[in-house]
Design goal:
The protein has 136 residues and is of the alpha+beta class. The protein has a domain of 77 residues. The protein is built from three helices and three strands, in the order H-H-E-E-E-H. A three-stranded antiparallel β-sheet has the order 1-2-3, covered by helices on one side. A hairpin with a 5-residue loop joins strand 1 and strand 2. The longest helix has 12 residues. The chain is elongated.
Length: 136
């Protein structure tokens, strides 16, 4: 089926507002079944009809400036096809079951000012030479 026909069919199924939202943030239009919403407000969808293999699940992030680390571990396993059942149906994949889990999300600080930076307390073996010019 051509891309234009698929786009028109999705436009009719999801509406103009959702069509514009998906084109801006996903770059493609998708129509599927809402599987669940996590505690951050991200929505998880699945469409088993007329899609390529391993392209049937996707996430619609709540935040415009999304951080992929905001996907909970259970939803990450589901969206990566590691498990068949979503965390809403599988008790083991839900958060808050284990005592060692963090109660809130810690963002990924890579490439930010708060990122971990190593430093050395030893004196370097070589030091930079600064030329000194004699006055004339």
């Amino acid at each position: 089926m051509s891309t234009i026909l698929r786009t028109l069919r999705n436009l009719r199924r999801i509406g103009f507002k959702e069509y514009g939202h998906q084109m801006q943030y996903i770059g493609d239009t998708k129509a599927g079944t809402l599987i669940g919403v996590d505690r951050y407000g991200n929505k998880y969808f699945e469409n088993m009809e007329e899609e390529l293999p391993l392209r049937t699940r996707w996430v619609d992030y709540k935040e415009k400036e999304y951080d992929p680390t905001q996907i909970e571990p259970g939803w990450h396993a589901w969206i990566s096809y590691m498990v068949d059942a979503p965390p809403t149906a599988d008790k083991i994949m839900q958060t808050g079951v284990r005592s060692w889990e963090l109660p809130e999300h810690r963002p990924n600080l890579t490439l930010s000012r708060a990122a971990f930076k190593t430093y050395s307390t030893t004196r370097p073996k070589y030091s930079a030479w600064t030329p000194v010019a004699a006055p004339r």
